[in-house]
Amino acid sequence: xxxxxxxxxxxxxxxxxxxxxxxxxxxxxxxxxxxxxxxxxxxxxxxxxxxxxxxxxxxxxxxxxxxxxxxxxxxxxxxxxxxxxxxxxxxxxxxxxxxxxxxxxxxxxxxxxxxxxxxxxxxxxxxxxxxxxxxxxxxxxxxxxxxxxxxxxxxxxxxxxxxxxxxxxxxxxxxxxxxxxxxxxxxxxxxxxxxxxxxxxxxxxxxxxxxxxxxxxxxxxxxxxxxxxxxxxxxxxxxxxxxxxxxxxxxxxxxxxxxxxxxxxx
Length: 266
Hints:
- It is built from 9 helices and 14 strands.
- The chain is of the alpha/beta class.
- Strands 5-4-3-2-1-12-13-14 form an 8-stranded mixed beta sheet, sandwiched between helices. Strands 8-7-6-9-11-10 form a 6-stranded mixed beta sheet, with helices on both faces.
- Helix 4 (123-129) links the parallel strand 7 and strand 8 (136-139).
- The longest helix has 14 residues, at 26-39.
- It is globular.
């Protein structure tokens, strides 16, 4: 890897690094991580998920890796938080009003301390989102939450997600951005915040150039990161627009495509 000038590996989680939200070949990854450590190559997980979920999946390496969570809204260097976005009061108020007016579209609200779902929302939605947000709580009202809010997340039928994204883009009117994250999931995020901006914070801290990054992704929320990386891979299970944005295509996540490519690059 050193001969290619790569000093950082950035991976999305779901649909990219993970086989099925939680599983990956841990023994194989340990060998690869040891080689990256020997070569001075940094490892970063860049995901729409909560940082606490990432930490639970990589418990032995959280002190050595970087985490770009919540689509770039919350960034950690090891265990140290180095950046947290903040949605404006106007943006939060508009989103909360819209959520109450459209009860058929459930939402989780994410902040620094945790994620929150309003009571009365379907339990199945809470349980589903808990896979991605391991610190998630029931609340009576989003408006009563005392936290630094930076994202709202939802999931709908995959056939309806494009319409929901367009609808919420109209609702937030530039106060926030809306991005798809695959399989019917979409996130409403702080404007100008994405995985590339979050990753750039770590690059600056570690004196690494974007040209020295290899990145892997599979969804629309990975596009900015793939475009900024010196070498980018879309997963074979990714939609065509993501493949078009990447330099190369890696085997599918179910085939441990990221690990296969890293073994070839090392």
